[in-house]
Amino acid sequence: MLKLLSSSSARQIHNHLASPCLRVTTESSTNPLLKALGSITGLTRRTSRNPTYYQRALFCSGSSNDGSGEVVEVELKSGESGADSTDASNAIVPTNPRPEDYLTVLALPLPHRPLFPGFYMPIYVKDPKLLAALQESRKRQAPYAGAFLLKDEPGTDPSVVTGSESEKNIYDLKGKDLFNRLHEVGTLAQISSIQGDQVILIGHRRLRITEMVSEDPLTVKVDHLKEKPYNKDDDVIKATSFEVISTLRDVLKISSLWRDHVQTYTQHIGDFNFPRLADFGAAISGANKLQCQEVLEELDVYKRLKLTLELVKKEVEISKIQESIAKAIEEKISGEQRRYLLNEQLKAIKKELGLETDDKTALSAKFRERIEPKKEKIPANVLQVIEEELTKLQLLEASSSEFNVTRNYLDWLTALPWGNYSDENFDVLRAQKILDEDHYGLTDVKERILEFIAVGKLRGVSQGKIICLSGPPGVGKTSIGRSIARALNRKFFRFSVGGLSDVAEIKGHRRTYIGAMPGKMVQCLKNVGTANPLVLIDEIDKLGRGHAGDPASALLELLDPEQNANFLDHYLDVPIDLSKVLFVCTANVVDMIPNPLLDRMEVIAIAGYITDEKMHIARDYLEKSTLEACGIKPEQVELTDAALLALIENYCREAGVRNLQKHIEKIYRKIALRLVRQGELSEPDVSGESKKAEAESIQSSSGSNEASRNEENDETSVEAETVMTDQPSEQIQCPVDQPANSKEATETEKIEESEVTKAVEKVLVDTSNLADFVGKPVFHAERIYEQTPAGVVMGLAWTAMGGSTLYIETTQVEQGEGKGALQLTGQLGDVMKESAQIAHTVARAILVEKDPDNPFFANTKLHLHVPAGATPKDGPSAGCTMITSLLSLAMKKPVRKDLAMTGEVTLTGKILPIGGVKEKTIAARRSEVKTIIFPSANRRDFDELATNVKEGLDVHFVDDYSQVFNLAFGYDQNEEK
Prior knowledge:
Elements: E1 2-4, H1 7-12, E2 18-26, H2 32-41, E3 53-61, E4 70-78, H3 83-86, E5 104-110, E6 120-124, H4 128-139, E7 144-149, H5 164-172, H6 175-181, E8 185-195, E9 198-214, E10 219-224, H7 235-254, H8 256-268, H9 274-283, H10 289-297, H11 301-353, H12 359-371, H13 380-395, H14 401-415, H15 428-438, H16 443-459, E11 466-470, H17 477-488, E12 492-496, H18 504-507, H19 520-528, E13 534-538, H20 551-559, E14 567-568, E15 575-576, E16 582-587, H21 595-598, E17 602-605, H22 611-630, E18 637-639, H23 641-650, H24 658-699, H25 702-725, H26 742-761, E19 763-765, H27 770-774, E20 792-799, E21 802-815, E22 821-825, H28 830-850, H29 856-859, E23 860-865, H30 879-890, E24 899-901, E25 904-905, E26 911-912, H31 917-926, E27 931-935, H32 939-943, H33 947-950, E28 954-958, H34 961-969, H35 973-976
Parallel strand pairs: 2-4, 5-7, 11-16, 11-17, 12-13, 13-16, 18-19, 20-24, 22-23, 24-27, 27-28
Antiparallel strand pairs: 1-3, 3-4, 5-10, 6-9, 7-8, 8-9, 9-10, 14-15, 20-21, 21-23, 25-26
Helix pairs in contact: 2-7, 2-8, 7-8, 7-9, 7-11, 9-11, 10-11, 12-14, 13-14, 15-16, 15-17, 22-23, 22-24, 24-25, 25-26, 28-30
């Protein structure tokens, strides 16, 4: 980079100029490019009658903007004629020997930018041998060396700024390593001066390395390169060069730094031609070193001009960005300075008037005021940390970043409810009443909460526990937690961990991070203000696992009763007592919870609601809240029990009641729209009739008044009929016959009119018009066979949404000698496929035992299918049902129509226990099954069910498949029919 010094500053530093001076010639002839470039800067070239004169130009070479680069004095000569002027095309006075005679030169590595001919560059030579060789060359009157750009290390980005370590590595390169890292094309540079380890180079002409001569210092053989011949009068080259100059003019309007470069160059250039212009634009641009090296290596003048034009155009854009940034920063700084000064003046005024104390003093007083009431309850180690932080706060400057970190830390420490517990209510009867008010059924959950309250009452203090409520969506797991908090008189806090993948959400961030915050538990304690809240951790089975750690493992310390008395948050870094907190977790599927975490919880399963429970919930809870939410009065609508039952059976078979609530809301929204439409239609008619009646009563006599009233009655009755026809027939009451007396008729008409209005407003929802509100039924009867055919058996399945019945069907595909095989369909999982293979084997063994002469399985290809083929199914508990289906087809004997079964079967025919007893029992009741076959190991699970769930069911518990065979086929078919 080049900088022009002013004449005054030049005089001051004249004594420090490097020597020898370089003699530069300028032609007296007019050069069009030189004129154009001179017009950019507004400079006028000096002329003299004396044909020969010298100019002195002072240059500062360096990359910094503070003018700290090396100062060089150059002596410019003008008016030379003859051979001297023609040989001065490179603006350098030839020496003896000439520069082109140097075919072997010392190689100087340039780490940052290439050196262009006609420009100065200071470099630092750290190698003492190389520095000594340069000084020796200068003494021998051969002050020339080759300057070559250093290649980047393999795998590094040239646009990324390198650090000091890489600079040291560059200086350490020697010999072949340095030779391999140099670009082939460089510049023959004259050594202008050497001061210490700084060497000033002046570029002369382009070189290309051919081979290495010696390694230390690195000496190479070079070829001197010349530009390819070009036509000076070529219009394209001229246009490109003038576009470069035009672009330079645009840059100079914005950037004063470029203006200095142009002024400097126009003072010392000689024959200003197209190649010089290309080199000039590239040399003073801010392009990276590889782009500059590309310009240096290009010998085609037109291509070099095009490359330079691209770089200069980019400089225009950069200069515009620089100008906008400078303007924005200047505006921001001026505004902030004004605000800062005003704030400081305001603080000083308030302090003088005694209206405000110092910020740090006020903060410390606020924090001490917070901890004063609970100083005795705060643990000693925490109190010590608070005192240390308060002392640190007084020593820190308010403007430092550490001050804000300490202030936030103290804010959290002092805001926590140390030792502050809410008074618990251990009244069991009150808790029972609250739980019954909020939820219908759920006997197991309510009993467990009452046990917890009873233990707390006997001990006088309640210890925090971890309860996990598992069940399908919509059964009320989250709302149960709120009810428990109300029953215990505890504060309630809920946070969901579904999809949580960052451990810092639970354990907090380190204080050193920007924007650090404590974990959810510390935030909970600050929000609720007590140390014994009820914390509901929702969706704990949907914890994520990301790059920031495993949150499930972080929850172990939080939920372990043995460890959470000293829970350590990363942000606070002091132990917190969470042993009094009651944790309630919710999950849809317990299998998704990691075993170490599940081991710390007490799981209470909520299977779902049967039809009777859903009816009560809909009547007592959902309907009331929906009426209020929709703004409908109870007397305006009637939802019959039959319609509600149909809604539950045909639309909302899920284990929960969330979908049922949505459908009830859908019905009431449609009713609200109907009522509003009726009101808008009837209001204009009523007002019109009343005005008409008033006008006629004023103008008419009593006799004519009665006549008009009769006419009015006729019109009203017609309008009433019109409104009534818009409604279903069952929603409207027909008017009675009109009395003969006209006065009585008028009064009766008014009464009837109001009754008709009430009748129109009341909407009846029954099974006949239920589809008008909620559409066609989603579910159909789960019993798709009135009389179960041979090969079809009903099984019982568990799903995440509750229980359901599942038919297993077997049919014969083809029959022939030795064609026995089994084909499976129905989206079966691996476990269920294996169960089918086991069932096939066990069924063959049982058929051989029961009917040895029957070769059915050996000679028949069978197809076993489980309907609802789009639904993936898996699990071992369908083995018992599959065997029964295969045997039913083999013996051509159907099973009884009201039978359903479930159980896993071994190869020896033993029945193993299954899961989801309550869900499967509910599914059996929904399908009007009378007889269920369960494994004997599940007898206790069935006995623990509520009476209303297992009411009316004949349940058989079996240990071996032979018992299942007798129950399924040991009946009189005539009686069954």
